[in-house]
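Worked Example 4.2. Read the sequence first, then its structure tokens.
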Amino acid sequence: MYKLFIIKRVIENVFIFPFIFIGRLIAAFHRLKKEYRIFFFFPFYHTGGAEKVHAQIATATGGNDCIIFFTRRSDDDRFIDDFKKTGCEIKDVSAYTDNKWLYFLNLVYRGLITGYINSQKLKPIVFNGQCNFAYKISPWINNTIKQVELIHSLNSFSYIRIPFIPFIDKTVMISRQRIEDHKKLYQRYQIPLNYAERIVYICNGIPLPSSVKPERPFSPFTVLYSGRPGPEKRIHLITAMAKELQNADKDIQFEMIGDLSGLVDSSTFPFIKFHGSINDPEKINSIYSRAHLLLITSSTEGFPMVIMEAMANGCAIMATPVGDIPFHVKDGENGFLFSSVENESSIINEACEKISWLKNNPVEWKRISGTNTSYAAVYFGIEHFNAAYKNLLK
């Protein structure tokens, strides 16, 4: 199967070559004004966990000798200022690379940008943050230039990248479970296993809060959801839990961060506090600092950054055992793992039982809170993240 992917890529490149040649001619006559150490390729700068991580990577390793290309149209400007603060030059080329009616421009830009990369006097590094365009240009980059990719989870990019694996020098993955999943994929698609040796694990990181309240009122006992909408998040399970616990104990308060307006009718759940989308980190930490427990009911995850943020703020965690969550959340030690991922009735029943138990056992909550604060300080600090990427992109 892998060989068929390679053959298909080679045939496509034969037909694409004239457009590459045109782009190279343009690059030769319109040269870049300066040399760049790193060429970053990201699809978006809109709201999203991946975009937040991309901005952190550019902050840690970028500077005025680096350039960022955005290749897809973003839905909003959530992280554009974060990218600008990195000091990197920003180029949004989505008008040319994300236009299905003028697709030939995408092909020309493959030649244009690789012409820029290959003509650098000092060999740069190319960093691909789950960017389809960056995979498409990888065969046209000189093989002496290091190419690094970041894969956030087992997703569509896990398959898009298959024909281009030979051009990738290092693959960063943020989940140990997803590394194992990709190794199984390599075996299934008959991809040479020596390519799996290029995979490195770098856990995401967060700026830790300056202080954490060791005590917080238990009235109400606050259960928090924080994240984007999506079918895998199974928000309906959280609203069902809130409804059931509201009938049993009105001293348990559910709160939700994120734009869920198209998914949940807030008027139907007057007992849930909806914060909506919040971009201010201080406001987010303020909500975490008052909460007692973070709830994750996802059917699939890598390792959500919201768990890092909640643990750093002393929240207990209750989550489905998916992705890397069981590596960091130990049932009964620093939170609770549901016994099932698929059985939704079981998840609701277990959540209601354990939330009530924790609310009635403040000593246990305080123990878990302290454990999580200490754990986050050791494993999730942004300093570890920054050091790992600086070392990778030297």
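Now turn to a second chain, presented in exactly the same format:
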Amino acid sequence: MERLTTKYSTILIAVGGQTRFYRSLEEVPDHLREQLVHSTTGENAATLLIADPNGRQEILRLIAQKQEELKYAALATGLVQRSTWDSEAAAHWRFWLSWLGRTLLVGSLGYIIWLLASFR
């Protein structure tokens, strides 16, 4: 049985917060092509081989996952800080939830003591 193989190329370029796909090197704009050639000829260059169209979706998923991991790693190491509004809002809600929990605990204990005293 003869095997049919179709070959596709996809070039993924992410620069300045934008991600673009190109089908060939000729489609890549000149200024990006120069950066692409320079970055793919260095020591840290790598090649990705994707076997099918589903591979493109897999790459997008992995890129999104890696971006989340990098964001959390940066937060954990202190390279990037959360916005002050987020931390202030969280502290505000923690304060009120702890106050509510303590109030409910004291109120419940008082009610239990009153029930025990009223049954005797």
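Notes for the reader: The beta strands are 11-15, 18-22. The chain is about 60% helix and 10% strand.
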